[in-house]
Amino acid sequence: MSKYRLGFYIGIACVIGFLIFLFVDFDGKPPEPKVTAEGKDVPTILGTYCWSKGCVDTISPPEMIDIHK
């Protein structure tokens, strides 16, 4: 095998590894919500969601607001 072909295969393997790293969900949780309005961060709370490793059900939004005041 020529050194150019070996380099090509190594490059393809690196690209595939990088894409797996970008798109595979390792911890099973969605990203933290980040909301901005008019250049200012708006505080958010992660509620009920379904992600790669199942669903998580949380308390209703009014109760969440009361807890996080």
What does this structure look like?
There is one protein chain. The mean pLDDT is about 80. This protein is elongated. It is built from two helices and four strands; from the N terminus they run αββββα. It has about 70 residues and is an alpha+beta fold. The strands form two sheets. Strands 1-2 form a two-stranded antiparallel sheet. Strands 3-4 form a two-stranded antiparallel ribbon. It starts with a helix and ends with a helix. The relative contact order is 0.11. About 40% of the residues lie in helices and about 15% in strands. A hairpin with a 2-residue loop joins strand 3 and strand 4. It has one domain.
Helical content class: 40-55%
How do the strands line up in the largest sheet? Answer: 1-2
Number of strands: 4
**Span from first to last CA?**
65 Å
String of helices and strands: HEEEEH
- The dominant shape is elongated
Mean pLDDT level: 81
What ranges have pLDDT less than 50 throughout 5 or more consecutive residues?
A: none
Our count of domains comes out at 1
Largest sheet: 2 strands, antiparallel
Rg result: 21 Å
Please work out how many helical segments DSSP would assign.
2
Q: What is the beta-strand fraction?
A: 15-25%
Q: What structural category characterises the helix and strand content?
A: alpha+beta
